[in-house]
Amino acid sequence: MGRKGSPRSPQAEGGPGAACPPSPLWALPEELLLLICSYLDAQALGRLAQVCRRLRFLSSRDVLWRRIARGCLNSGFTQLGTDL
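Structure tokens predicted for F-box domain-containing protein (84 residues):
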């Protein structure tokens, strides 16, 4: 919750680009970032989402999780004998 009297910026609300330190990574187009993230597994995407709000927004995109979900449905919801 914000302090009394201090307006909250759109970035403080968790939109793309919020609360991430400056990095050359953010100069890349979103399509390229999604391509890079498409090589990550479910555990890595979950960890990426914990880094900052912008990466949480990026890693929550359906296009990244469809491949993982499709793989889970085809394999019986297990990977290497452990639940996902």
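The first helix runs from residue 30 to 37.
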